[in-house]
Amino acid sequence: MSTEVKIDEQQIREYAYQIWLTEGCPQGQAQRHWEMARQLVEAEALGARPPPASKARSKATPAKASVLKKPRSTGKADT
Q1: CA-CA distance, 38 to 49, in Å (whole number)?
Q2: 15/44 Cα distance (integer angstroms)
Q3: How many domains does the chain have?
Q4: What is d(CA 9, CA 15) in angstroms, rounded to the nearest whole number?
Q5: Cβ neighbours around 59 below 10 Å, total
Q6: Per the domain annotation, does 36 fall within a domain?
Q7: Could you report the per-residue pLDDT of 5-64, keeping only the tens digit for each?
């Protein structure tokens, strides 16, 4: 299954430039910046979505209920 994506070269250029600026304008990183920008544009074109939340939920163990003991009666009435 082949998904054809229309890549906007101008958008890649702008993203690559922004990446370059963000990284402090380093020399010799143009190819890496271009590839990063291309991947961003491609992801946007494909309508990238965050990964779906896991359907498996962790099973929380219920807290053990403290058993409150009734105070023992001493046989004497509280006064």
Answers
A1: 17
A2: 12
A3: 1
A4: 10
A5: 6
A6: yes
A7: 567 899 999 999 999 999 999 999 999 999 999 999 999 888 866 566 665 555 555 555
